[in-house]
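Researcher: Sequence of inositol-phosphate phosphatase follows. Predict its structure.
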Amino acid sequence: MIEQIRTHQAGDITESTDAVPMTLTPDLSGLDLAAVEAVVRRAAADEIMPRFRQLAAEDIVEKNGPHDLVTVADRRAEEQLTAALTELLPGSRVVGEEAVHADPTVLDALHGDAPVWIVDPVDGTRQFVHGDPGFATLVALAHRGEVLASWTYAPALGLLAVARRGAGAELNGVPLHAGSPAPGAVLDVATSHYDFTDDDQKRVLATLDTAGIAPRPCGSAGLEYLYIARGDLDAIAFSWENAWDHAAGLLLVQEAGGTSGTVAGRPFRIEGGNALPFTAARDAKTARRILGLLAAAN
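Model: Prediction complete. Tokens:
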């Protein structure tokens, strides 16, 4: 159960001079975290995994181009998650990737007073379509812009990571600790995929192709955050801000001891309006190095 949720920003690498008003969190003491996990697992078992490597051509649709795909699994899993999560927490809202694509005003819920479930039913749809197991279902619970808990489930890989604000993060029940890169080690950094970046974004991200850093294009954003949280990846540098791609992972990294920040020196806001690119990293030193390079190119 979510209790004594703290409103801290332990992962911020710089302090903002903007005053942050104190807000009361909703009463979530009756919310069973295990029940949320069960909902996530059930949606994947019912709507995603039976279609993995079984999709027909008519099950796949382009949204905004040949690299931006949606499948029947995305849509049906989001529908199931939306119904089940709002039943678990009456009065809550859902901001799902596919719902926002159909009606952008759904995003307004991120600015409201009700608790919000932020859902990406299949993060890494391109991987899913091509039979690659590197995809995940992402769910986060937020209130007034603060992420309170998150679930990152990679059903084809057998991985489930859970984070709760102020209470740490776990992967398959084992505590996660991001740690720090070894002194002098080359930093492994996942960046926005070149298929989804414009020329200016490519120019800025290219500054990471330098001595001591080994950049590569990202796969599923949710899994890249998980890899940071378990110490397998040193940092990410992303140039887009869709809440459903980042909310779950940013909390996961923070609760594993990592950090994040934008090129403006401010925390990433799930409501949008961020200075981009931004980073999440295993430690503050790594984040400062990545942000310094990115900011110099902006």
